[in-house]
Amino acid sequence: MKVLSEAQAQTEASETLDPKNWDDIRALGHRMLDDMIDYVANIRDRPVWQPIPDEVRARFRVALPHRPSDLRDVYREFSEFVIPYATGNVHPGFMGWVHGGGTAVGMLAEMLAAGLNANLGGRDHIPIEVERQIVEWMRQIFGFPQGASGIFVTGTSMANLIAVLVARTTALGTSVRRRGVSEDGALLTAYTSTAAHGCISKAMDIAGFGSDALRCIEVDRCHRIELAALRERIALDRGAGRKPFLVVGSAGTVDIGAIDDLHAMSELCRQEKLWFHVDGAFGALGILAPALKSRLAGIENADSIALDFHKWGQVPYDAGLLLVRDGDRHRDTFAAPAAYLRRESRGLAANSPWPCDLGPELSRGFRALKTWFTLKTYGTEKLGAVITRSCALAGYLQARILAEPRLELMAPVQLNIVCFRYRAENANQLNGEIVLDIQESGIAAPSTTLLDGQLAIRAAIVNHRTDFSDIDALLSAVLEFGSRRSSDHRLVLQLEQSPPLAM
Q: Which residues are registered as beta bridge partners of 219?
């Protein structure tokens, strides 16, 4: 065995990752903070998004660093080659996907959380009480009973997976955790709509059922699940010897923001004795807006609800949450005693049950702090007003589309998502090109989706910074690039149809 000399031991003991000069890092830290506040404050001066040059991308293919670098040099590289090529969802012109814009308050809270470096898997410390307080607030907002449980996760994709696992344990008993799905589980069947998010199918896959065990039920013209078809398919599956166990309703579908009839779905699930889960990734927080609350009637009857604070809640990524009506069933799904996780009645190992009893993660960051700061700083009324305004902006965009003969509304606007297109021959190809042109211009960042096989430009208005001028800029860009592209397409068509030149 190697024996270190006293000098060697002292040298190795002095190795630390703390700075040698705290004043130096304090000064650089203040500069970083000022720069990021300036970045958010002056975000309109930047393009929404811009393509990454090959030489910039190549910088992130270099070899692993073995020797130290000066922090100032690392920060300089971040400033020059990371900031300019970010996703762009901080910008008010970002409307492509349902991404929140974040806030300076949330950014500061994230810094504080990083300083604490708390692991929220368990033990007795105040960060877990902060998370529990938010779970309690959400329990009250959604009308869940005492004894309900909740847990922060990365986002609704993970929350939906956990909900499927809780429903699985409820249907098969806790023995499923030891024996697996086996023969009984092979007959379990779940239901959602064709408009539901793809993560529901992925959750069924990961949970061991396979995506074929998920029945995707057709929707009505407003993209809400057809209840008669749902009831009929459940009866058909029961008659075939299958075992329906789960129905997933949508509070804000991914394509157009539709809300299923949650009250009728909850009644059906009660009658059929099925677990009723609501995927409310962004739409569930509409409950904070008085004008939208009634449209979520029935969500209080759900067995579980998944939602994201990093969307309409404007919390910086990531901050998802799962609420479960029956906390005992939730714990039965994940609690796993281990000697190294021994619980005590006092000391640091007290305060059981721990969050690791409610999900698959033991190592968990302090996501709750930025959510707590956001709720405490702005309050639910202010956040509800922001949600209401984003829907009003969607209404404004809809009105402008309907007034413009060159544009076509592709689906009814129900919340904050507007799907439309530029009228033209070969409209699918042309509208896809329009969206790419707009993204590359830096003016705005819409996305696309397919509705009944027709490609639509999709504008999801989520960012609290988005204003009427940003809607106008998007529409002007669509019309400008649409006109250019239409001319190019007509010219190509004329050349293809013109007779060959005389020889």
A: 225
293-311 pLDDT per residue, tens:
999 999 999 999 999 999 9
Pairing of strands 304-308, 275-279: parallel
H or E stretch at 191 = strand 188-193
> What is the DSSP annotation of 417-470?
EEEEEE--TTHHHHHHHHHHHHHHHTS-B-EEEEETTEEEEEEE---TT--HHH
Per-residue model confidence as pLDDT tens digits over 85-140: 999 999 999 998 999 999 999 999 999 999 999 999 999 999 999 999 999 999 99
Calculate the dihedral angle through the C-alpha atoms of 396, 399, 401, 404, rounding to the nearest 10 degrees: -130
- Exposure string over 389-424, b if 16+ CB within 10 A, otherwise e: bbbebbeebbebbeebeebbbbbebbbbbbbbbbeb
Q: Which has the closest alpha carbon to 200: 166, 265, 249?
A: 249
**103: exposed, middle or buried (C-beta count within 10 Å: 0-12, 13-18, 19+)?**
buried
Amino acid (1-letter code) at residue 169: T
- pLDDT digits over 447-468, tens only? 999 999 999 999 999 999 999 9
Residue 193: helix, strand or coil by DSSP?
strand
Q: Where are the domains of the chain?
A: 119-365
The whole-chain average pLDDT of the chain stands at 94
Q: Which pLDDT value is given to residue 15?
A: 85
pTM (two decimals)? 0.93
Paired strand residues for 421 = 408
The dotted CATH code for 119-365 is 3.40.640.10
What is the rounded distance in angstroms from the CA atom of residue 330 to the CA atom of residue 170?
9
C-alpha 46/C-alpha 94 separation (Å) is 12
- DSSP character at residue 306: E
Reported as a single tens digit per residue, the pLDDT across 309-344 is 999 999 999 999 999 999 999 999 999 988 888 999
